[in-house]
Design brief:
This protein is of the alpha/beta class. It has helices at about 15-25, 45-55, 80-85, 105-120, 135-145, 170-175, 180-190, 200-205, 210-220, 225-240, 250-255, 310-325, and strands at about 5-10, 30-35, 65, 125-130, 150-155, 195-200, 205-210, 245, 260-270, 280-285, 305-310. It has a single domain (about 5-325), classed as Alpha-Beta Complex (Inosine-uridine Nucleoside N-ribohydrolase, Chain A), CATH 3.90.245.10. The chain contains 12 helices and 11 strands. Helix 1 (about 15-25) links the parallel strand 1 and strand 2. The longest helix has 16 residues, at about 225-240. The structure holds alpha-D-ribofuranose and calcium ion (CA).
């Protein structure tokens, strides 16, 4: 019997954030302690509403949800409605949530829960899974660094060792707030927080088909399975594809089944300048047996576990089995 892992999600719900929320809320090996919201795919208030809705459908109306940063530290807001729909979550038109968010700001909720976890000892340490621009996390780490004691690790859905998506260079979550991503990387090194980068190199590999979505929808009753199926169906329709990625949900799979992910500890920097490269995660895969003295930049100060490949069928099966629930 596995002891459920304490987890906090930071989200910009978001079609694939919703896929991740369902997995975290329903899987027995995850103890979902809280969800913090940030502007990204949609406005922070839409993200809060979408998140509350998903947790209500999953029967997790007791999990605290807190509103966080409205916009990035420096960049203007740049929502992704062309990907996630006008309301940020597939425009399903399902009823709005009754529940209100936690009265605390996301950063304060993180500080409170992680300070409690720190006091609770090693088994109480929390895995923070970030599925959005890192604005909340940067503000938290700069404001309450001592509370980071309550972290087991941070799994960041963000960045890419190869090509981007928001631009040719950059992945959306990092591109949206590059300064925040740089602060999180720097803080992880300074505060000795283990960090896994679940980037685009694996993000698109874990896919579910239209037929599998139809089976989920058929379970009906506007429960978790039907919601999961409609999220996949929406993406297939939006992109004219016979299948769709579970996206952010793969980062939660990595918490549940790390053995299916292949990572390598590599130096990573975030490009903050650059006309066409701003927001790129520069993952250094050079063989450093050479002479670093000739590189004017030297090695990046922060090395993290970069996900380079994944057993995609294993994660897709994990997600499908977990969300195939009529309603709690
Ligand atoms: O680049 C993919 C990421 O950007 C995902 O988290 C998706 O939800 C969007 O936020
Ligand atoms: Ca997201």
């Amino acid at each position: 019997m596995t002891v459920p892992q304490p987890v906090i999600l930071d989200v910009d719900t978001g079609v694939d954030d919703a896929c991740a929320l369902l997995l975290a809320a329903l899987h027995p090996d995850v103890e979902l302690r809280a969800v913090t919201c940030v502007g990204g795919n949609a406005s922070v208030d839409e993200v809060v509403s979408n998140t509350l809705k998903v947790l209500d459908i999953a029967g997790c109306g007791d999990v605290p949800v807190a509103r966080g940063a409205v916009r990035p530290l420096l960049e203007p807001v740049s929502h992704a409605r062309h990907v996630h729909g006008e309301d940020g979550m597939a425009d399903l038109g399902w009823p709005s949530p009754q529940r209100r968010p936690d009265p605390r700001h996301a950063v304060v909720l993180l500080a409170d829960l992680l300070s409690q976890a720190a006091a609770g000892g090693p088994d109480d340490r929390v895995t923070l899974v970030t599925l959005a621009p890192l604005t909340n996390i940067a503000l938290f780490l700069r404001t309450y660094p001592q509370a980071a004691e309550g972290l087991r690790e941070i799994v960041v859905m963000g960045g890419a060792a190869n090509v981007g998506n928001a631009t040719a260079s950059a992945e959306f979550n990092v591109w949206h707030d590059p300064e925040a991503a740089a602060i999180v990387l720097e803080s992880a090194a300074e505060l000795d927080i283990p960090l896994v980068m679940y980037g685009l190199d694996v993000f698109y590999d874990v896919r579910v088909t239209l037929d599998q979505a139809a089976e989920l929808i058929a379970i009906g009753n506007r429960g978790p399975a039907e919601l999961a199926g409609r999220l996949i169906d929406f993406q297939c329709g939006r992109f004219g594809q016979p299948d769709a990625t579970i996206g952010d949900a793969g980062a939660v799979c990595a918490v549940i089944d790390r053995a299916a992910l292949t990572t390598r500890r590599l130096p990573v920097r975030v490009e903050l300048a650059g006309t066409y490269s701003r927001g790129r995660t520069i993952v250094d895969r050079r063989d450093w047996s050479g002479d670093i003295a000739h590189d004017p930049h030297g090695m990046a100060p922060t090395s993290v576990e970069v996900a380079l490949s994944v057993n995609a069928d294993r994660y897709a099966g994990l997600w499908l089995r977990t969300v195939s629930v009529r309603r709690r």
